[in-house]
Amino acid sequence: MATEITTTGKIRIPPAEIEYATSASPAHTARIFTWQGELYRSIPQSSLPMWKQLTEEGLLQELIHERLFVETRETDLQLEGAALVLKHDRIPFVSYPYEWCSAAFQSAAIQFLELNIRLAKSGLATSDAHPWNLVFDGTTPLFVDYGSFVPLEQIHRADFINQFRAQFWYPLQLMTSGHGRLARTLMQEYSQPIQEDELPGLRYLWRRGWLRLAKSRGHSRLGRGAQKLARLNRFHLQRQPSTEIWIKGLERWKRRVERVRLPRQRTFWSHYYAEDYPDHAQPETWSEKQITVAKVLEELAPATVHDLAGNSGWYAQLACRQGRQVVCTDNDDLALNQLFQREQSSNSGMSLAYLNIVNPVGPHGTIDARGSRLYTAVEQRLQADCVLALGLTHHLVFTEMFDFPFIFGALSQFTRKDLIVEFVSRDDEYVKTWWNDSYDWYTLENFCDIARQYFEEVDVQDSSPAGRYLVVCRQRRNEP
Ligand SMILES: C[S@@+](CC[C@H](N)C(=O)[O-])C[C@H]1O[C@@H](n2cnc3c(N)ncnc32)[C@H](O)[C@@H]1O
């Protein structure tokens, strides 16, 4: 159906051309959709008063200006069932909460509380408390769901805080106490938030202990005391607090989250760049590998770059300085935390995400009307024009039982066009100790032969230290 211009000169969007991102559930009061590659939101007549309240007092403009809410504009577009169509900015690389490093997760929790403090001052709140409405633009978590703003009196304080605990506080506790993998796995079950008795250790048992005591020792003096406390607690939770008390409560939570100490223990890779992080502004101090990667990136000129297994991001920062849109991923939370903190001060717009290339999370969640999964595969969300995979493939071969087709199969999923991958030969000091006769296929020649099945052009350049090579693969083939 052709796009139609109405008598008032406005463009009417043909419903067949749009794709809704959410269901038609009445809980979705302002549905998000894509049209011609851009992101929009349809506001029904019933939601117009909220839009007016937000914009007429300038609150939404303030939230956008202070980077608490994604850039959003009113449009002239017309759509069946919509009283107003809004346009949102598109975020280049969308990562899901279970892909955030612990520093990012902490920052998202703080931002969410700050947003609710600001909303409460105008008599508003978000209808629920979970991280799935936040999207990182570089290191800034932006709230994106305009549809979940509601009058403050509509939310139930105790439910909101319990949700906040399950969706933000417990995952953060798990991540910062060395159980990050557990937190990430549990968070993939979006509709089943973490419960306090799923947390390891006895830290939270006291919260339930006295309620249990009340039940089991009903007739004793201790039991009666506990029952009284339980009644008081129920009464306290059912009361809706004044706005002032609500804001004070949120500010207390914010301070509590800010005080959380990020993990500092050493991991195998957390200090990889500790002594060798040359200044990007001084190319004369760079290694041969760094000089060659910089040169090849200039030649390929990709608009977007994914530095995969990028550790704390020397090459990702190099690509940023060349003006590219960059995402850096790794499966070491501490290395990513270092990069996140550095990026927060430099503000280069780089995105970061936790990614284990051995086990990338595919499309998941329920199936929608078009037969696709609600949550998109990581390969799709973090795909770039060029992927860097440096200092990685020998680990995949010797510790993860990968062979060359597995390597190129996995890496090529993340690139739209090109790949710069490092090959570390048998002459390297580490590979020497791992190599034996059963790896006689592990040669640069075989590596390049397999690369040619996935890419149109393959070219080898020297890397450093000696015995390492940069294999530059151009133009991914659609079929290997
Ligand atoms: C030798 S460092 C290379 C860092 C950087 N790419 C470079 O060349 O300077 C290897 C990196 O690979 C990461 N890594 C190892 N196995 C990984 C996996 N399965 N998925 C993602 N990253 C991985 C490590 O955490 C580490 O940061």
Automatic annotation (TrEMBL):
Species of origin: Polystyrenella longa
Name under which the protein is recorded: Methyltransferase domain protein
Gene3D superfamilies: Vaccinia Virus protein VP39
Cross-referenced InterPro entries: SAM-dependent_MTases_sf (IPR029063)
